[in-house]
Request: fold
Amino acid sequence: MTRRLTREGLLNLAVLAGLVILPLWALWADEPFTITLATRAVVLALAAVGLNIALGIGGLVSLGHAVFFGIGGYAMGILAHHAQTYTSVMEWPFVIEGTKNMPIIWLVATVVSAFAAFLIGLLSLRTSGVYFIMITLAFGQMFFYFAISWSEYGGEDGLSIYVRNSFPGLNTLVPIQFYGLCLAILLAALALYSALMRSPFGLALNAARQVPERVRAVGLDPFRLRLVAFVISGAITGLAGALFADLNRFVSPTMFSWQLSGELIVFIIIGGVARLFGPVVGAALFVALEHWLGGLSDYWHIYLGALLLLIVLFGRGGLIGMFAGRGKIHD
Amino acid sequence: MTDLVLETCSLNKSFGALKATDAVSITLKPGEIHAIIGPNGAGKSTLIGQISGALPPDSGSVLLNGQDVTTLPPPARARLGLARTFQISQLAMEDTVLQNACLGALGASGKPWRFFRPALSNTALRDAAERALERVGLLEHAATRTAELSHGQRRQLEVAIALSLSPRAFVMDEPMAGLGTEGSATMTRFLDELRREAPILLVEHDMDAVFALADRISVLVYGRIIASGTVDEIRKDQAVREAYLGDAE
Ligand SMILES: Nc1ncnc2c1ncn2[C@@H]1O[C@H](COP(=O)(O)OP(=O)(O)OP(=O)(O)O)[C@@H](O)[C@H]1O
Ligand SMILES: [Mg+2]
Reply:
């Protein structure tokens, strides 16, 4: 099957090129802060790519994805905290030691987030529409308040990590190396998203969003499809949370806040719902505006709101839709 | 009587004070087309909902190939070989025609848990889907976005999805609705052949089609079967003519 490059494909390539060139330029120009900003954008994009699986393909408007982001963050915080204080996470019934090893932290973040997504999905996916939004929001608030009261791990103040965690063969303290690591994970998640979208699972999930009755009538269960999508989605957002905490070397209950859940949705809407690079464009623009407009005015969110309004009113496909036209149907 | 493909035993369903299904017992035998006719609001779609599992009956039971499926949800009934079509087309409008047909084949395969290889490069799925499209004459539109299909083509796709399930029984809710004379005639010829693969419980308003196709007709009025018989018997039945056919002849 030969595949011609569509306008959206070209646009995606351009965004990808930007993600590679900008930090390299910053490295050359000795602007480490720009690399940090780019890392922030890439990690937030990763969180939103996770959400895009549930929201974009599955049509599940989760206002509680900060739960997984926060779980990922606390997985990192707790493991690293115990490692740096030479204590164990728990001693009974078996001993679990802390760790500063990123792959292990990522694994824990992903597995725990997936498990939380499974439980939350089990309870919330029986509902739909506004009820689903409210239940996921309620779960988010539950985790938020729990984290605030969890004094063992800093309560409201959160946890600070002295040194960034390590990755075999890399020096993660060098901004560009940590950036490269985050970008590689983002690209892997995008590859997964793209494969999912075209797979039999994606076909069924996509149909379950549009015509659930039809999906049931051909012998498939929309609930199970959505639950699996929600678990994959939560796992990816959880992994992003671990990276985010590592970027800041800090984790606090704000990672669980509903504002963060809302921002992830905003990234997707700005970039383009269900578009492969939609979350990337949205997150990058958000971080850029946050930096430049945030420097000019404390009320920069007003401009973001105006942009969002314009996109919702005039460009249903987000920025990618405005430049690349209607989504190409996957061959 | 295990050679019945489908059987309902005294189904009842009320919406508040409205009795939409009133002690309905019908059967479907191998190789036949059993037509259900009745005026608007008679309860035909409600009956189909109970047969397919989308609506729970208040009482009574549904048997599929002799197995009681009354408590099974629609996906389980579909996997047991029941394929329904909808009165109002239920199609994934953003997807292509081929993708919609693949959905049926995917349901029939029972293996949606594949996450990496593209659905459309799965030859088994794709072949089954293309075969179904070819039979309803939609293959040339396989790559078309479903939203761009005409009403008649959507009705054909609706049937193609049911076909791609390779079912043991079809339950069709007004497949000719809005098709026009020529479209109805084509669909009629098509259903005539289809009954050899699996019997059809056919809800239809188009009397020409029903009289041309049906081996048996049951007449549903206010939720009750008021008459059941061959085409000739129904045509002659005085009660039916008064209640429904009016001065059709
Ligand atoms: N979910 C529901 N709640 C309340 N009343 C309903 C519901 N579904 C159907 N009804 C009523 O039950 C009766 C039967 O409806 P049904 O759709 O089964 O009729 P039908 O024979 O299919 O009609 P048509 O020929 O118009 O398709 C109608 O009076 C309808 O208004
Ligand atoms: Mg009806």
Notes: The longest strand of chain B covers residues 18-28. Strands of chain B lie at 6-15, 18-28, 33-37, 59-64, 67-68, 82-85, 169-173, 200-203, 216-221, 224-229. The pocket of adenosine-5'-triphosphate (ligand 1) is lined by residues B 15, 18, 20, 38, 40-46, 87 (CB under 6 Å).
